[in-house]
Task: structure prediction
Amino acid sequence: MSEMDPREVEMDSLLRRSMAAPVPSLRPDFDQRLMGELRRRSQPSSQFSRILLAGYGGVSVVVSTVVMRGQGLGWGATAVMILGPLILVATVPWVWRATHSTTRHIAR
Amino acid sequence: MIRVDSDSQLVARAQGGDQDAFAELVRRHSDHVFRLALSILGQGFSAEAEDVTQEVFLKVHHALPSFRGEAEVGSWIYRITFNQAVNLKARARYRKPHLDDTVLSHSVTAEPGPHSLLETAQRDRSLAACIQTLPEVYQAALRLYYWMGASVAEVAALLDVPENTAKSYLHRARQLLQGLLKEKGYSYV
Result:
């Protein structure tokens, strides 16, 4: 830093004074928690289960549509009744993750 | 004699499913990743920096099979970290940047007298606000160098740029800060 002009030297000194503060570090159990999270995420989900679930979902949608239409419901109401719970189910894990993360930050 | 694998050897072993090799990679780089994330997010965001560190290693683990070794392992990891932290920062603008209490207490010890103490605190707050307006790489370079005490070589390694570029980031950041503080009416000696 020998090529600094006098004003830059002043700024350098101000930055050193102003930014001097303890630097936090990772929690000591970080490695274990990371490896635990990795193990949790790499559980192989069975392809058969996924096919079964998708098939069940598809059949449910078709049967529900036929029944609701049979009861005289319009297409709009039928779509809302079917898609509403699906959106709810898709949103719950996202909300849980956001809440879980915020709670963890507050706990720290 | 203890055999110490290089990063590339560890990656090759991890690609073959060796979890111990991946754990060793994490041990080697986690502190650097955390410090880089913290340098981008700023003081008071250590919890978020830790989350970024975890996400980075989960991404690295996920991307290991496709890593072909075109770049250094460290550079690859730090690039992921930079992007991850910048993305988080863009999403987390709701949290106002603030000065850590230790910065203010440090100023208190350096400047006796209530008037100069207040002035110093205000100037430090302005400086912190000015730093927040700089480009991300300048902010990261400043925090790594001045807050975390990293050398220019370390700043260059973490930002994945040549040393001269890291030097010019610091030089340009100081120049910009001089101008910004002057606009705010602060003499900073």
User: Anything to note?
Assistant: The mean pLDDT of chain A is 82. Residues 50-108 of chain A form one domain.
